[in-house]
Amino acid sequence: MAASKRVGLLVTCLVDLFRPSVGFAAATLLEDAGCTVEVPSQTCCGQPAFNSGDRATAREIAEQVIAAFEPFDYVVAPSGSCAGQVRVHYPELFAGDPAWQPRADALAAKTYELTQFLVDVLEVKTLAARCEATTTFHDSCSCLRELGVRTAPRALLASVDGLTLTEIADGEACCGFGGTFAIKYPAISNAMVAKKADAVSATGASLLLSADLGCLMNIVGKLQREGRPVAARHVAEVLAGALDQPPIGMPAASETPSDAKADAEPPAEKPQAGGERADVNTAEAQP
Question: Which residue spans within the chain are E strands per DSSP?
Answer without folding.
Answer: 6-9, 36-38, 74-77, 111-113, 130-138, 161-165, 207-210, 231-234
